[in-house]
Every structure is written in structure tokens, then in C-alpha cells.
């Protein structure tokens, strides 16, 4: 098996793994804001921007984890992270390493990539689609 065959085999599966790992890490931010786990001083008021972000992180993260409605969910979460960066991080400093916005930038572009590329073969979306186009 040559490198091209290996890449053709693993590339879609690695897309699924990227989606799953990003969703798990992202969901932790939602559980912290909404469920108080892991424990933190953050306790956002209901319907405040941090609370809405927490709901998006928890529900959107869960949907991405299983790969259901992946493209629209990833697009919405990408937008959430762009807004979070410009509202919460950018005013602190121009440099992401100083303003704490590294994760927001990475999540934004990982989710934008998933919105464009799809969830990969290990997803509910792919399972539902398998009957029609064979992938």
C-alpha cells in the first residue's frame, strides 16, 4: 500500500476524529457554564450572552460529537467563536497569545472547516446518507 492509498483511506476518518475531539473539548466549556462542571466561578445569568454561549457549546458540541446536522451546527459554532473572540478577547490585546483567544480562533476555523468539508464517515449524517450515495 503506497502513501496515496493510505492518505485516501485515513483522511476522511481523521476528519471524523477531528470533529469528535473538537466537540468533546468544546462541550466542556458548555458544561462548565451551564452545569457547573468542572466547577468554576462562572455562573452566567439565564439568557445572558455567556449563558447563550454555554447552551450553544453544550447542545452544538453534543450534535457535533455524534455528527448530526454537522454542517449547519459547525457553521453556527464557528460564528459563535468569531463573535466570542472579538467581544471577549480582542479588546484585551491585539495578540491572541496575550488576550487568551487562541482557543476561540482555533475552534472558529476548525468548525468552519467542518462546515465546508462535512462530518466525515463516522457520523450520524454519513450513516443517514449511506443508503443514497454509498458513502
List keywords for this structure.
single chain; 75% helix; mainly alpha
Would you give an account of this structure?
By secondary structure, the protein is mainly α. The chain has one domain (3-133). It has helices spanning 3-35, 49-66, 70-89, 96-99, 102-117, 124-133. α1 (3-35) packs antiparallel against α2 (49-66), α1 (3-35) packs across α5 (102-117) and α2 packs antiparallel against α3. The two termini are 22 Å apart. The mean pLDDT is 94.
Instruction: Give the beta-strand count.
Output: 0
- How is the main sheet built? none
In DSSP terms (H or I, runs of 4 or more residues), the helix count works out at: 6
Bin the helical content. over 70%
Radius of gyration: 17 Å
Instruction: Calculate the terminal CA-CA distance, rounded to whole Å.
Output: 22 Å
Secondary-structure element order, as H and E?
Answer: HHHHHH
Oligomer: single chain
Mean pLDDT: 94
Q: Please tell me what the overall shape is.
A: globular
- Computed structural class: mainly alpha
Count of distinct structural domains: 1
Strand content: under 5%
Runs in which pLDDT lies below 50 for 5 or more consecutive residues are none
Topology:
Elements: H1 3-35, H2 49-66, H3 70-89, H4 96-99, H5 102-117, H6 124-133
Short description:
With 135 residues, the chain is mostly helical. Helices cover 75% and strands 0% of the residues. The two termini are 22 Å apart.
Amino acid at each position: 500500500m503506497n502513501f496515496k492509498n493510505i492518505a485516501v483511506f485515513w483522511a476522511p476518518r481523521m476528519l471524523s476524529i477531528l470533529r469528535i475531539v473538537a466537540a468533546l473539548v468544546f462541550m466542556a466549556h458548555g458544561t462548565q457554564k451551564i452545569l457547573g462542571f468542572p466547577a468554576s466561578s462562572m455562573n452566567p445569568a439565564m439568557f445572558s450572552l455567556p449563558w447563550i454561549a454555554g447552551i450553544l457549546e453544550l447542545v452544538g458540541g453534543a450534535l457535533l460529537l455524534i455528527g448530526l446536522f454537522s454542517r449547519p451546527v459547525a457553521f453556527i459554532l464557528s460564528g459563535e467563536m468569531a463573535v466570542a473572540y472579538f467581544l471577549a478577547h480582542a479588546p484585551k490585546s491585539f495578540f491572541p497569545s496575550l488576550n487568551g483567544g487562541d482557543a476561540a480562533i482555533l475552534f472558529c476555523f476548525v468548525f468552519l472547516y467542518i462546515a465546508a468539508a462535512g462530518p466525515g464517515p463516522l457520523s450520524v449524517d454519513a450513516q443517514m446518507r449511506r443508503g443514497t450515495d454509498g458513502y
